[in-house]
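INTERNAL AUDIT FORM
Audit reference: QA-55
Scope: verify that the stored structure record matches its stored sequence.
Auditor: D.O.
Record contents follow.
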Amino acid sequence: MVDERLGDLALVRGDFTGAAARYRDALARSTTEAQTRGLQVKLVGADTPGLGPLLRDYFSPFTAAADKPTLAARQLYAALTLAAIPGQAPLGEYLVGLQLLHAEAPADAIVHLRRSLAPVEGEAPLPSVELARSARLHLVGALVRVRRYDEAVAILQELIAEPGIGNGHRMTYGEWLERIEFFRVALPTTGGMPVVPALEPASAATDDAGADHEDADDPPAPPPGADERPEGDRTDDSAAADPPRAITPPDDAITPPDDEPVTPPDEAE
């Protein structure tokens, strides 16, 4: 999307006011929920004093090929720094969770994703319905990876009961319920077996995870797939998560990821 790219150019140059204006224009034309989430996170960075440089480091627009090997570490550091800023913990925890999912650390991601959905007193919640929905769906994927199926189903029921969802959301949630029932039999919770495998290798360019380079735009590794990712790697709101390898998902269920980068999310759930 041209407006988003122009916003990224302004962001890199340090023109945060100009970047915010471009991101608002892009949001007005956004056609997918994943794209919307990425723009929302970028807009928070451009619009909030002191956050511009941090979100610029997280998304790293136009990252050179030579810098890609260190991108995941830099994105995780930026997300952790954001989570430590008063008033920004939920968004920072969400981005940390996405990065950990893409780093194949679902158990650790669960901790941060739960924090993003339960702000402490004085903290504002995630800044949009789309980001909160993404956090829950990424949490479902992380819980399935570690075979905590009952908890995953409980969150899916909350998502299904959410007002205003569309048919794409309902289809995605229904598919996740079917996958969970399959894994209850194929990979039961007893026996201390490894986690449920991801569909794709971990990637730093999906969902709200960040990463803005074309060749890094792979689908999010862990089931589900965030955050807020490069525009070239986004799909519709029914494909917010990627299914585990054991099941072949419908074509429209496999996305780019958001969400973005390391994962997100063009989050850097």
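Auditor finding: record pair retrieved intact. The radius of gyration is 17 Å.
Action required: none
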